Amino acid sequence: MIVVIGGGTMGAGIAVEFLLAGREVTVTETGPEATEAALARITDSLGRTLRRRGREGEDEQVLAALEMMVGPAPVSDPELVVEAVPEDPELKKSVLVGAEAAYPHAAVLASNTSSLSIGELAGVLTEPGRFIGMHFFNPVPVSQLVEIVVGARTSPRTVETTRSLVELIGKTPITVRDSPGFASSRLGIALGMEAIRMVEDEVASAEDIDRAMVLGYKHPIGPLRLTDLVGLDVRLAIAEYLSDQLGPRFTPPELLRRMVAEGRLGKKTGEGFYQW
Ligand SMILES: NC(=O)c1ccc[n+]([C@@H]2O[C@H](COP(=O)([O-])OP(=O)(O)OC[C@H]3O[C@@H](n4cnc5c(N)ncnc54)[C@H](O)[C@@H]3O)[C@@H](O)[C@H]2O)c1
After folding, report:
1. pLDDT tens-digit profile of 73-96?
2. Which residues does a 6 A CB cutoff place in the pocket of ligand 1?
3. The pTM is what?
């Protein structure tokens, strides 16, 4: 039995993957409306994922193993409780305290945080040994990677169980020490910021800088196009956080600040390094 706390963008995808791996899944939400919206997201994502994997028509059978709830599920020993509530440290801490009380015998208690310190979140728990970061990527059913973030007090057994759970859903785990930006954001932002500095220095056009990585290094997408898709404001915020935590090598380029101030945020506003 898997418990997913919060059936938003990420929680819905996580639920779909464990359902498809044959597990019983309970998704907990805040109220009836949020529960209905979460169920719609799961049903929709499941349908698309089944189609993509050539398993059309199995929807009903798979959904039979799903339970939606407001408040904690009536089970004390799930294999995994993973929270995917919004990225607000105080909210996450209160959800984790509640989860520890509701599921005293859960094997693993995980957070899908994309930026918060696992050590800091673990500070509110009485049993930090079974707490770990499970950083899924969006959209979950399409992405191959789960970054496992190991806190200073996470037990080796928790790491092993978490790796097995990631493999169970057919994804590849990487193991990262709890540190700012984990592996993915730290390296992705470094590349993205340098690409923006190259535009600023007029080394080459945005298109050609992206081509250098796509054709020369076999990246599926160039760093500037990716920045447009993620949102320049989102990447600026991460760069500021990393420069604060890891030093000036992450200081965001002036060009990025200027574009954000002008509202050129990428795809969502129609203009970034490209016209959309
Ligand atoms: N969206 C992404 O691309 C992405 C990628 C990787 C990681 N993350 C991380 O995943 C987490 C969730 O992000 P998201 O984009 O899915 O958010 P979201 O806003 O889409 O979903 C959050 C869900 O949590 C529910 N919720 C709020 N409080 C709750 C509570 N107390 N109990 C149960 N449910 C509660 C909300 O109703 C909502 O459905 C965040 O930590 C985020 O940083 C997001």
Report:
1. 999 899 999 999 999 999 999 999
2. 5-11, 28-30, 34, 38, 84-87, 95, 112-114, 136-138
3. 0.93
